[in-house]
Amino acid sequence: MTKPSVQSLHPGRGRGSAKGVEGPRGHVSDCSRIKAECCRCGDRRVEGGGTHKYLTINICQRDTPDGGWTAEDHQLFKDITITCLAQGQSAQLLTFLQDVKNQGIVRSMGCNLLGPIANEIVRKQKSLGHCEAAMTHLTKTCKPNELLRGMLELIEDIDPDVIADTITALTPHLQTVILLMEDKAAPLGLALSALQKQISRLPVPYTQQHEEEDQYGLCRSCSALAEFVKPFVEEVQSDDGKTSAAPGDLKAELYNFCIGCLREPLLQSQLDQSRKSQLWFFATEIMRTLLAVRKNIPDLLFYIRPRRSILWDNPETKESRACIAYLLFVQHIAMESFPAVLSPVFILERNMEYINLLLNRKDESFLLKGLELYAKSLAYVQDRSLPVNLLGLEIFYTVPQNLRKILTDCPMQHLRERALQVFQLFINKLDAEAKHRFFRCMLKTSSHAGVEGFVIKNIKNEVKFSMEPGKGNGWFLGAEFPSLLELVLTLQQGAETDLLHGMDRIMESLNLLRFLLIRDREWKRNVSHSISAVTSHHPSPQSGVWAELCRLKREYLKMLRVSLSISRAYYAGEVKALREDHKLKAKEARVTAKSTGLVKNLTVRHKKDSDMSPEVQYQVLQSALVTFDLMESLIVRIEEITEEKAKIQN
Prior knowledge:
mainly alpha; single chain; about 650 residues; 3 strands; three-stranded antiparallel β-sheet
């Protein structure tokens, strides 16, 4: 019989031995091939018990196959390692693991030590160097499949407080394990899926300061993830197409990894090309990886649906492609790979799907990216060049409506301001007919006085532009203009319209009327040229278009005066009631001061309907009356101009 060889793994020093003594978790190993021997030393006893602090662990190696170790052996070996690390004896543990005589047991049961050693690495104690070396030795000695399974279990069970530290500690060793495998695709896919699942639990930094502090470790985790995939990307790039199908499977796994990272965390990150942060560099690495596995970014964005891709049209994949568009056109990452032959209008049309997706979300990061992508897509389009047929596409109706929702409903001022800039940019890119149609649509559907006022202001600007020599057109000077003007010069609820609520729209419509009357000669001349360019048998401008404008003006001003009278009377009555209420309360206060005993029996005649103080209510009512005076002054000025023009003609 072969005499067993013994290698001692002894945390601390001691004398003597006692067989059958309990291990760290009560395992008694009289007959086991792993024996825990206790050093009986009077001055080294563990408090509160008879177990000694210092153990000498003898591991008896026999001529046993690697798989011949029992479950008890595995558990006891793990417990012994935990005890060694707890006592700060990581150097002895490393010596034991590296000893040539112990490679059989290390190869068979070393995977059990991954957890304790990884935990010690995460704690970053003095034993960090020894534990790193021990982990490296295990990854080179143990069976790759068992190592992979053990590391994936560690990743799945990460405590939320140490996600980043665990990922940065494990990924280099996990990379080594997968590189040792012949078939790398499936293990890589499992590893990336597990890592991304844990990274998705980390909060995304919201500001530059948060990103620099990296309190939760998302930036460190992303950097570790980028380093982790590099050798696999290099393998895909070096493949000459003559190998097996494995590189193709690797491409698929790397592609899925990129799609996942684009959606989370990159789509939620605040990226800035001028401040190249860790997340910005991570985005750069993801785009490079995507180029390595797909080669052609335009195909991915605009043309080709991948074969066997059931998830191509699901919302998550669309979000990832929207992020690609943002990184490409806004951050200019991998822009050198994009062909310059594609027209700006084509790029805008294709990007509208991604813009719409981003603007439909409520998250600030999504809305910002949608607005910036929209602005960049429009920036390269020539002014006054987008044809009216584009507005026939549903997406060109939906996206401006989403912009309107941001303008009217979003609580964040910087988003509203940016949305207004993009809204104006879109208007600038439309040709005359497209503007005419778009303005009609917005006046009919916006239901918001501020947006309608902004549209009417643009109508005035377009009329002014059309009056310039050689710029005339029938959409803002000719026979088509009265149909648009009719939508402008109207009160939605007639005489009962809330003038304060519709103030922006009403003031802009009055300004447009005044402008048309002041510039009537230029307007009439250009109207005549515009109509004659379209048809030779149309009625004269004075009897046709101008007459229609005058009719709309008369009806509009008449209704507006009636509404002003009603509104002024109502608000003047409110001011009077407020004053009377104030006098009543002052009188009651004087009575109360004389008869303090009657305080509890006093009642207030008028109950307040508002949380505003009387002073604030009074200021609001006075402001309304001032607004009505301003409207009245504009109406008077328009009528004066009309009378002056009539005298000149006569």
